[in-house]
Amino acid sequence: MPNDGYLDESVHWKVRNGLLGFAEPTHGEVADAILEAGLATEVGQRLGSGKEADVYLGRDGRRRIVVKVYRQYRTSHRGGRRIQMESMGQRASREFELLGYAWQGGARVPEPGTRVENMFSMQYLGAPDRAAPRLQQARLDDPAAFLRDTLAGIEGLAEAGVVHSDLSPFNILVHEERPWFIDLAAGIRVDRLGSPPWVRLHEAFRALQAGGATLVRYFRRYGLEFDTEELLRRVRTKIELYRLE
Predict the structure, then answer these.
(1) How many CA atoms lie within 13 A of 107 on its CB side?
(2) Into which CATH architecture does domain 128-244 fall?
Protein backbone atom coordinates (compact mmCIF):
# COMPACT_ATOMS: atom_id res chain seq x y z
CA MET A 1 0.00 0.00 0.00
CA PRO A 2 1.22 3.59 -0.46
CA ASN A 3 2.96 5.44 2.34
CA ASP A 4 0.01 7.72 2.94
CA GLY A 5 -1.97 6.45 5.88
CA TYR A 6 0.85 4.18 6.99
CA LEU A 7 3.78 6.47 7.83
CA ASP A 8 3.28 9.53 10.00
CA GLU A 9 4.38 13.01 8.93
CA SER A 10 7.65 12.92 10.86
CA VAL A 11 8.72 9.84 8.90
CA HIS A 12 7.75 11.50 5.61
CA TRP A 13 9.94 14.47 6.61
CA LYS A 14 12.92 12.20 7.30
CA VAL A 15 12.45 10.46 3.94
CA ARG A 16 12.25 13.75 2.06
CA ASN A 17 15.42 15.00 3.74
CA GLY A 18 17.42 11.83 3.31
CA LEU A 19 17.59 11.08 7.03
CA LEU A 20 15.93 7.70 6.85
CA GLY A 21 17.15 4.70 4.87
CA PHE A 22 15.03 1.81 3.69
CA ALA A 23 17.64 -0.79 2.75
CA GLU A 24 17.01 -4.31 4.01
CA PRO A 25 18.99 -5.26 7.14
CA THR A 26 22.03 -7.52 6.97
CA HIS A 27 22.04 -11.11 8.27
CA GLY A 28 23.66 -9.90 11.48
CA GLU A 29 21.03 -7.22 11.99
CA VAL A 30 18.22 -9.73 11.42
CA ALA A 31 19.87 -12.14 13.87
CA ASP A 32 20.11 -9.38 16.47
CA ALA A 33 16.42 -8.54 15.98
CA ILE A 34 15.44 -12.19 16.44
CA LEU A 35 17.52 -12.48 19.61
CA GLU A 36 16.26 -9.18 21.03
CA ALA A 37 12.66 -10.28 20.42
CA GLY A 38 13.28 -13.44 22.42
CA LEU A 39 12.31 -15.73 19.55
CA ALA A 40 15.56 -17.69 19.75
CA THR A 41 18.67 -18.01 21.87
CA GLU A 42 20.88 -18.60 18.84
CA VAL A 43 20.50 -17.74 15.15
CA GLY A 44 22.26 -19.66 12.40
CA GLN A 45 22.14 -19.69 8.64
CA ARG A 46 19.37 -18.57 6.36
CA LEU A 47 17.53 -21.67 5.14
CA GLY A 48 15.57 -20.09 2.34
CA SER A 49 14.05 -16.96 0.83
CA GLY A 50 10.65 -16.29 -0.65
CA LYS A 51 9.05 -13.33 -2.36
CA GLU A 52 8.34 -11.58 0.93
CA ALA A 53 10.16 -13.40 3.72
CA ASP A 54 13.31 -15.24 4.74
CA VAL A 55 13.59 -18.30 6.98
CA TYR A 56 16.44 -18.74 9.46
CA LEU A 57 17.69 -21.71 11.45
CA GLY A 58 17.86 -21.12 15.18
CA ARG A 59 17.79 -22.62 18.64
CA ASP A 60 15.52 -22.05 21.59
CA GLY A 61 17.72 -23.42 24.31
CA ARG A 62 18.65 -26.91 23.14
CA ARG A 63 15.71 -27.21 20.74
CA ARG A 64 16.14 -26.45 17.05
CA ILE A 65 13.61 -24.03 15.58
CA VAL A 66 13.17 -21.92 12.48
CA VAL A 67 12.23 -18.25 12.41
CA LYS A 68 10.37 -16.69 9.51
CA VAL A 69 11.09 -12.99 9.02
CA TYR A 70 8.94 -10.92 6.69
CA ARG A 71 11.05 -8.32 4.93
CA GLN A 72 10.07 -4.76 5.81
CA TYR A 73 10.64 -3.24 2.38
CA ARG A 74 10.39 -4.59 -1.14
CA THR A 75 13.25 -2.42 -2.44
CA SER A 76 15.74 0.06 -1.00
CA HIS A 77 14.89 3.74 -1.07
CA ARG A 78 16.44 5.71 -3.92
CA GLY A 79 16.55 9.41 -4.44
CA GLY A 80 13.29 10.60 -2.96
CA ARG A 81 10.90 8.51 -5.05
CA ARG A 82 7.75 7.17 -3.43
CA ILE A 83 8.30 4.07 -1.32
CA GLN A 84 5.83 1.23 -1.65
CA MET A 85 5.56 -0.27 1.83
CA GLU A 86 3.33 -3.08 3.09
CA SER A 87 2.43 -4.05 6.61
CA MET A 88 4.60 -7.12 7.02
CA GLY A 89 3.65 -7.33 10.68
CA GLN A 90 0.06 -7.92 9.60
CA ARG A 91 1.14 -10.53 7.08
CA ALA A 92 3.19 -12.35 9.70
CA SER A 93 0.26 -12.20 12.09
CA ARG A 94 -2.11 -13.66 9.50
CA GLU A 95 0.18 -16.53 8.55
CA PHE A 96 0.93 -17.29 12.20
CA GLU A 97 -2.81 -17.38 12.93
CA LEU A 98 -3.51 -19.74 10.02
CA LEU A 99 -0.62 -21.96 11.04
CA GLY A 100 -2.12 -22.16 14.51
CA TYR A 101 -5.56 -23.13 13.20
CA ALA A 102 -4.06 -25.80 10.96
CA TRP A 103 -1.81 -27.23 13.67
CA GLN A 104 -4.54 -27.28 16.31
CA GLY A 105 -6.81 -28.99 13.78
CA GLY A 106 -4.32 -31.82 13.36
CA ALA A 107 -2.96 -30.87 9.93
CA ARG A 108 0.64 -31.79 9.17
CA VAL A 109 2.23 -28.34 9.49
CA PRO A 110 5.10 -27.12 11.67
CA GLU A 111 4.07 -26.40 15.25
CA PRO A 112 3.87 -22.60 15.70
CA GLY A 113 5.97 -20.99 18.39
CA THR A 114 5.86 -17.26 19.12
CA ARG A 115 5.26 -14.18 17.00
CA VAL A 116 6.77 -10.73 17.47
CA GLU A 117 5.86 -8.07 14.89
CA ASN A 118 7.05 -9.25 11.45
CA MET A 119 8.74 -12.45 12.76
CA PHE A 120 7.57 -15.77 14.15
CA SER A 121 9.14 -19.03 15.23
CA MET A 122 8.00 -22.56 14.46
CA GLN A 123 9.04 -26.19 14.60
CA TYR A 124 12.22 -27.26 12.83
CA LEU A 125 11.75 -30.18 10.45
CA GLY A 126 14.74 -32.22 9.39
CA ALA A 127 17.74 -34.18 10.56
CA PRO A 128 20.31 -32.68 12.96
CA ASP A 129 22.67 -31.95 10.08
CA ARG A 130 20.17 -31.13 7.33
CA ALA A 131 16.84 -29.37 7.15
CA ALA A 132 13.98 -31.20 5.46
CA PRO A 133 14.11 -30.57 1.70
CA ARG A 134 11.30 -29.10 -0.34
CA LEU A 135 9.47 -31.63 -2.47
CA GLN A 136 10.84 -29.94 -5.58
CA GLN A 137 14.41 -30.85 -4.55
CA ALA A 138 13.68 -34.29 -3.07
CA ARG A 139 13.90 -37.73 -4.63
CA LEU A 140 11.04 -39.90 -3.39
CA ASP A 141 11.62 -43.55 -2.52
CA ASP A 142 7.90 -44.36 -2.63
CA PRO A 143 6.21 -41.66 -4.72
CA ALA A 144 2.81 -43.42 -4.79
CA ALA A 145 2.63 -43.49 -0.98
CA PHE A 146 3.81 -39.88 -0.81
CA LEU A 147 1.13 -38.81 -3.27
CA ARG A 148 -1.55 -40.53 -1.16
CA ASP A 149 -0.23 -38.77 1.95
CA THR A 150 -0.16 -35.43 0.12
CA LEU A 151 -3.79 -35.69 -0.97
CA ALA A 152 -4.79 -36.80 2.54
CA GLY A 153 -2.84 -33.84 3.92
CA ILE A 154 -4.74 -31.39 1.72
CA GLU A 155 -7.96 -32.87 3.07
CA GLY A 156 -6.53 -32.64 6.59
CA LEU A 157 -6.00 -28.91 6.16
CA ALA A 158 -9.62 -28.56 5.06
CA GLU A 159 -10.73 -30.52 8.13
CA ALA A 160 -8.90 -27.89 10.20
CA GLY A 161 -10.74 -25.10 8.35
CA VAL A 162 -7.82 -23.97 6.19
CA VAL A 163 -7.22 -24.20 2.45
CA HIS A 164 -3.65 -23.82 1.17
CA SER A 165 -3.89 -21.33 -1.67
CA ASP A 166 -0.40 -21.86 -3.09
CA LEU A 167 0.08 -25.62 -3.33
CA SER A 168 3.27 -26.54 -5.14
CA PRO A 169 6.35 -28.75 -4.68
CA PHE A 170 8.07 -25.66 -3.24
CA ASN A 171 5.59 -25.42 -0.33
CA ILE A 172 5.72 -29.04 0.77
CA LEU A 173 8.60 -30.38 2.84
CA VAL A 174 9.66 -34.03 2.85
CA HIS A 175 10.26 -35.03 6.47
CA GLU A 176 10.46 -38.65 7.63
CA GLU A 177 9.14 -39.66 4.19
CA ARG A 178 5.90 -37.72 4.68
CA PRO A 179 4.61 -34.37 3.36
CA TRP A 180 4.51 -31.31 5.61
CA PHE A 181 2.80 -28.17 4.37
CA ILE A 182 4.47 -24.78 4.76
CA ASP A 183 3.94 -21.17 3.67
CA LEU A 184 0.31 -20.49 4.58
CA ALA A 185 0.82 -16.77 3.99
CA ALA A 186 -2.05 -16.60 1.53
CA GLY A 187 -4.07 -19.43 3.01
CA ILE A 188 -7.85 -19.18 3.15
CA ARG A 189 -10.00 -19.81 6.20
CA VAL A 190 -13.27 -21.50 5.37
CA ASP A 191 -15.22 -20.81 8.55
CA ARG A 192 -18.04 -18.30 9.01
CA LEU A 193 -15.82 -15.32 9.85
CA GLY A 194 -14.59 -12.51 7.64
CA SER A 195 -15.76 -12.03 4.05
CA PRO A 196 -18.96 -13.69 2.74
CA PRO A 197 -18.60 -17.51 2.79
CA TRP A 198 -19.37 -17.96 -0.91
CA VAL A 199 -16.55 -15.55 -1.80
CA ARG A 200 -13.99 -17.44 0.29
CA LEU A 201 -15.17 -20.82 -0.98
CA HIS A 202 -14.92 -19.65 -4.59
CA GLU A 203 -11.39 -18.38 -3.96
CA ALA A 204 -10.48 -21.58 -2.11
CA PHE A 205 -11.62 -23.95 -4.84
CA ARG A 206 -10.08 -21.86 -7.59
CA ALA A 207 -6.75 -21.90 -5.71
CA LEU A 208 -7.02 -25.65 -5.07
CA GLN A 209 -7.71 -26.31 -8.72
CA ALA A 210 -4.57 -24.43 -9.71
CA GLY A 211 -2.51 -26.08 -6.97
CA GLY A 212 -3.82 -29.50 -7.91
CA ALA A 213 -2.78 -28.96 -11.52
CA THR A 214 0.72 -28.02 -10.35
CA LEU A 215 1.00 -31.19 -8.28
CA VAL A 216 -0.31 -33.29 -11.16
CA ARG A 217 2.55 -32.00 -13.32
CA TYR A 218 5.05 -32.78 -10.57
CA PHE A 219 3.93 -36.37 -9.94
CA ARG A 220 3.89 -37.15 -13.64
CA ARG A 221 7.69 -37.36 -13.42
CA TYR A 222 7.07 -40.54 -11.43
CA GLY A 223 4.43 -41.78 -13.87
CA LEU A 224 1.60 -41.01 -11.41
CA GLU A 225 -1.72 -39.28 -12.01
CA PHE A 226 -4.62 -38.19 -9.84
CA ASP A 227 -7.99 -36.60 -10.48
CA THR A 228 -8.07 -32.98 -9.32
CA GLU A 229 -11.84 -32.84 -9.59
CA GLU A 230 -12.14 -35.81 -7.24
CA LEU A 231 -9.78 -34.04 -4.83
CA LEU A 232 -11.98 -30.93 -4.98
CA ARG A 233 -15.08 -33.02 -4.24
CA ARG A 234 -13.44 -34.60 -1.20
CA VAL A 235 -12.18 -31.25 0.06
CA ARG A 236 -15.63 -29.73 -0.41
CA THR A 237 -17.08 -32.52 1.75
CA LYS A 238 -14.49 -31.83 4.47
CA ILE A 239 -15.24 -28.11 4.38
CA GLU A 240 -18.99 -28.66 4.60
CA LEU A 241 -18.52 -30.94 7.61
CA TYR A 242 -16.22 -28.40 9.22
CA ARG A 243 -18.73 -25.60 8.75
CA LEU A 244 -21.47 -27.68 10.36
CA GLU A 245 -19.52 -28.20 13.59
Answers:
(1) 30
(2) Orthogonal Bundle (1.10)
